[in-house]
C-alpha cells in the first residue's frame, strides 16, 4: 500500500467513498498519462476506471508515491 497524506486519508476518502485504493495504486503503476504540476511538483496520474465510466485523476506528492488527492476527471482526454 502506498503512503497517504492526512488530507487523502481524512478528507478525500471520506468525501469520495466510491474511490478505491486499488484504482489509485493502478493509476500510479500504469497511468494513461502522467504530468508534473509546475507550481508545486505534485504529479497527476490518469487511469480509465470502467466501474466509474470515467477517468480517475490521482495526485501524488512530488515523490510520485504519496497519495494526496483523487477524483473523477471531467475534461480529461487521452
Q: Explain this structure to me?
A:
The protein is globular, with a radius of gyration of 11 Å. The chain contains 2 helices and 4 strands. The chain has helices spanning 6-15, 21-29; strands at residues 33-36, 43-49, 54-60, 67-73. It has a 4-stranded antiparallel beta sheet with strand order 1-2-3-4. The protein has 78 residues and is α+β, with helices and mostly antiparallel strands.
List keywords for this structure.
78 residues; alpha+beta; four-stranded antiparallel β-sheet; 2 helices; globular
Q: Which helices and strands occur, and which strands form pairs?
A:
Blueprint: H1 6-15, H2 21-29, E1 33-36, E2 43-49, E3 54-60, E4 67-73
Average pLDDT, to the nearest integer?
95
The number of strands is 4
Output the strand order for the largest sheet.
Answer: 1-2-3-4
Largest sheet: 4 strands, antiparallel
Class per helix and strand makeup: alpha+beta
Q: Treating each run of at least 4 consecutive H or I residues as one helix, how many helices? A: 2
General form: globular
Q: What count of domains describes the coordinates?
A: 1
Our measurement of the CA-to-CA distance between the termini, rounded to an integer number of angstroms, reads: 27 Å
Secondary-structure element pattern, one letter each: HHEEEE
Q: Indicate the radius of gyration in whole angstroms.
A: 11 Å
Amino acid at each position: 500500500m502506498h503512503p497517504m497524506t492526512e488530507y487523502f486519508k481524512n478528507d478525500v476518502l471520506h468525501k469520495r467513498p466510491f474511490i478505491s485504493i486499488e484504482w489509485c495504486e493502478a493509476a500510479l503503476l500504469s497511468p494513461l498519462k502522467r504530468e508534473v504540476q509546475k507550481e508545486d511538483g505534485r504529479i497527476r496520474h490518469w487511469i480509465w476506471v470502467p466501474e466509474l465510466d470515467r477517468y480517475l485523476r490521482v495526485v501524488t506528492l512530488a515523490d510520485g508515491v504519496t497519495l494526496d488527492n483523487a477524483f473523477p476527471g471531467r475534461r480529461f482526454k487521452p
